[in-house]
From TrEMBL, chain A:
The keyword Transmembrane applies. The lineage of its organism: Bacteria, Pseudomonadati, Pseudomonadota, Alphaproteobacteria, Rhodobacterales. The chain crosses the membrane at residues 6-30, 42-62, 74-105. It holds the Pfam family AzlD. This is AzlD domain-containing protein. Keywords: Membrane, Transmembrane, Transmembrane helix.
From TrEMBL, chain B:
The chain crosses the membrane at residues 12-34, 40-60, 67-89, 133-153, 165-183, 211-229. It is a multi-pass membrane protein. This is Branched-chain amino acid ABC transporter permease. GO terms for biological process: L-valine transmembrane transport. GO terms for cellular component: plasma membrane. Its main location: membrane. Pfam families: AzlC (PF03591). It comes from Pseudotabrizicola alkalilacus. The keyword Cell membrane applies. It is found in: Cell membrane. Keywords: Cell membrane, Membrane, Transmembrane, Transmembrane helix, Transport. Belongs to the AzlC family.
Length: 107, 235
């Protein structure tokens, strides 16, 4: 599905300004003060709490196949994860996953 | 090799290796965003104004899934909340710079400039403020232009790629690749596992709110696991 232009033109400025304010928070406005340990702890898990949940449905039920579990996409996801865990290389994992996807699709 | 003296150049050298990550990432964003129906101007404005790869991918994915504006914004901003930690960590070193300078530095506070500066400032905390500021701007000098150029190249290429190349799966693969190296401790693995389990169970909830709920649960699970581990080690 294509992105709705109205949605885009609302998301763009708000996400841009919001992200800037997050970066500016302490450096520009709040100054030199410690973060409460509980807050620091929660913040350190934000990315790892969102991204896996965002991709899980797309891995198991890809829209491109009408929601049917697809062996090629499942294999590509597993290879990406394993290569990323072992090598700690983001680009290595993307390449390995991409090659697996096209190899299995082509078979 | 003669050691580099200028703090600005040392900053450039310290973040140069990140170019290898930033270029393919920017290319991929350009391609994916173009395939999702954004035109060249929109794609470039996106990279200029947000300048945070993971949240840009997340926003594109959610907008493509027709999630409501509020859900798109809440989720993508949450992806960027980790930068509060960057802002906190940089303040003891850069917080004494003039306000205008700090306004500019905040724009350039990205994963790579933070990582390179943090290592440098911890190793040599006593260097003068001017040197630290110069080092910081050095770290963004290779990164920022390459991010914008790579996005541009990706957007131009993306217009030429037909949809049957299974590019729908570029975003999931990219996210998995970003996440895998993050799973460096048991609490991180717990957070990721809860995120996946809860997101799958809550897909039925309207307007993509299931993902937000899953994220909150996963964050609590990660933080809880960290506290539990600390207690066990302390006992």
């Amino acid at each position: 599905m294509k992105i709705d232009p109205t949605t885009f033109w609302i998301v763009l400025p708000v996400l841009g300004i919001g992200t800037y304010l997050i970066r500016l928070s302490f450096l520009g406005l709040l100054g030199n003060r410690p973060l409460p340990p509980g807050l620091r702890r929660a913040l350190s898990y934000t990315a790892v709490a969102i991204l896996p949940g965002l991709v899980a449905p797309a891995v198991l039920w890809p829209a491109a196949t009408g929601g049917e579990t697809d062996p090629a996409r499942l294999a590509a996801a597993c290879v990406t994860l394993v290569v990323g865990l072992v090598t700690r290389s983001v680009i290595g994992a993307i390449l390995a996953g991409g090659i697996t996807l096209y190899a299995v699709l082509w078979l | 090799m003669r050691p580099v003296r200028s703090p600005f150049l040392r900053g450039c050298v310290a973040s140069a290796p990140f170019v290898i990550v930033v270029v393919p990432f920017g290319l991929l964003f350009g391609v994916v965003a173009t395939e999702a129906g954004l035109d060249l101007l929109q794609v470039m404005l996106f990279s200029f104004s947000v300048f945070a790869g993971a949240s840009q991918f997340a926003a594109v994915q959610l907008m493509q899934d027709q999630a409501p504006v509020l859900v798109v914004l809440a989720t993508s901003l949450a992806v960027n909340l980790r930068m509060v930690m960057y802002s906190v960590a940089m303040t003891p070193h850069l917080g004494a710079a003039p306000f205008n300078m700090r306004l500019l530095m905040a724009y350039f506070l990205v994963d790579q400039s933070f990582a390179a500066s943090q290592v440098e400032f911890e190793r040599r905390p006593d260097q003068p403020l001017a040197d630290k500021v110069a080092f910081f701007f050095g770290t963004v000098t290779p990164i920022a232009p390459m991010w914008f150029l790579a996005t541009l190249a990706g957007a131009v290429v993306g217009e030429a790629i037909p949809p049957e190349y299974a590019l729908d799966f570029a975003v999931p693969i990219t996210f998995l690749a970003i996440c895998a190296p993050m799973l460096r401790s048991i609490p991180h693995v717990v957070a990721a596992a809860v995120s996946i389990g809860a997101a799958l169970m809550l897909t039925g909830l309207p307007y993509g709110t299931g993902l937000l709920l899953a994220a909150v649960l996963a964050m609590a699970a990660g933080a809880g696991a960290e506290v539990a581990l600390m207690r066990r080690r302390g006992a």
